[in-house]
Specification:
alpha+beta, Alpha-Beta Plaits, two-stranded antiparallel ribbon, 2 helices, about 25% helix
């Protein structure tokens, strides 16, 4: 389970975030490319855009559920 206290500063503010357990597998970027990006220098994913529609929410949730190391979190805050 992702830890909000260990989330990357690169994450855009909002309920979804990626924490420091990320292994840069790219799965979230492939699943929701409009909302996740890879940090080129540090080699980790981050939330580049919080979801703003039901479709985007579904993609982010799918990415979170598919993360092999559970590095994506949703704290429920908007």
């Amino acid at each position: 389970m992702a830890d909000k206290a260990k989330k990357y500063d690169d994450n855009k503010p909002g309920r979804y975030y990626v924490d420091k357990e990320c292994i840069a597998c790219d799965a979230c970027v492939l699943c929701a490319p409009d909302h996740f990006a890879m940090h080129d220098e540090d080699g980790h994913a981050f939330i580049s855009l919080q979801p703003d529609s039901e479709e985007a929410e579904a993609r982010c949730k799918e990415a979170m559920e598919g993360c092999p190391v559970e590095a994506i979190g949703n704290d429920g805050e908007a």
